[in-house]
UniProtKB/TrEMBL annotation:
It comes from the Bacteria. Residues 8-63 form the HTH deoR-type domain. Keywords: Transcription, Transcription regulation. InterPro entries: CBASS_pafABC_assoc_protein, DeoR_HTH, HTH_11, WH-like_DNA-bd_sf, WH_DNA-bd_sf, WYL_dom. GO terms for molecular function: DNA-binding transcription factor activity. Gene3D superfamilies: Winged helix-like DNA-binding domain superfamily/Winged helix DNA-binding domain. The keyword Transcription applies. It comes from Emticicia aquatilis. This is Transcriptional regulator. Pfam families: HTH_11, WYL.
């Protein structure tokens, strides 16, 4: 019963975010989006309305929020909103699935706080922007978000890593230091490898298994620029 209540609470929150993102949305669209019956959506809408959320019902067209009800206190200019929408299309071509999902979720929340007039223009632009690729590729990795959390919380990570030439796999305990992406290539992780006792670059799409450990590591007292000057620059200009 508790799980059902948690699921409903999560759905109510998601419905509210959706209502803030869209100008108008029907009960049928909401039922498809959340995998529940239209009758359940009706009950959810009544629950939100009873809790004080000002939902406007436009007969035959759907639901919307009363103008002015949105998440405070951030506001965006139209140009800033357009830049975010354009960036979203670029992100959709990224090679890490977790990055795509998290960015799309963040953009949905940002859309939710836009004024109605800006929201209409943003929806128009979203349908008029496309990033063409000669040979579109599926996202190859899904560990970027997890590794970035480990990086910021200084957690050791245990990985099963496949070499670039696919000849063998090895297990490593690593200390995540930085993540970077070279153009349209895959994401890479720069980390201190306890096996090699040195910094190593790992292609994230070559990480076959990953486990974030509870054990912490001592943060490395340098920036990425300082790392470059100390370890990379001497190899380029010996």
């Amino acid at each position: 019963m508790e799980d059902n209540n948690l699921q409903r609470l999560s759905r109510l929150t998601a419905i509210l975010t959706t209502l803030q993102t869209k100008r108008l949305i029907t009960a049928t669209e909401l039922s498809r989006k959340f995998g529940v019956s239209v009758r359940t959506i009706y009950r959810d809408i009544r629950a939100l309305d009873a809790s004080g959320v000002p939902i406007f019902t436009e007969e035959g067209k759907g639901y919307s929020l009363v103008e002015g009800y949105r998440l405070p206190p951030v506001s965006f200019s139209e140009s800033e909103a357009n830049a975010l929408i354009t960036a979203e299309h670029l992100v959709l071509n990224n090679q890490d699935k977790s990055f795509i999902e998290n960015y799309s979720s963040a953009v949905a929340k940002i859309k939710a706080i836009l004024r109605y007039d800006t929201k209409d223009k943003v929806e128009l632009l979203s349908n008029r922007v496309h990033i063409w690729q000669s040979s579109p590729e599926q996202a190859k990795s899904q560990h970027l978000a997890t590794l970035q959390l480990a990086l910021t919380h200084f957690n050791l990570v245990k990985i099963t890593y496949q070499t670039v030439n696919n000849e063998e796999t090895t297990q490593r305990i690593i200390e995540p230091f930085a993540t970077y992406c070279l153009g349209k290539d895959n994401w890479l992780l720069l980390a201190w490898c306890r096996l090699r006792e040195d910094f190593r670059n790992f292609r994230i799409d070559k990480i076959r298994q990953l486990e974030v450990l509870n054990e912490k590591f001592q943060p490395h007292p340098m920036t990425l620029d300082e790392y470059y000057e100390k370890f990379v620059q001497p190899q380029i200009n010996p």
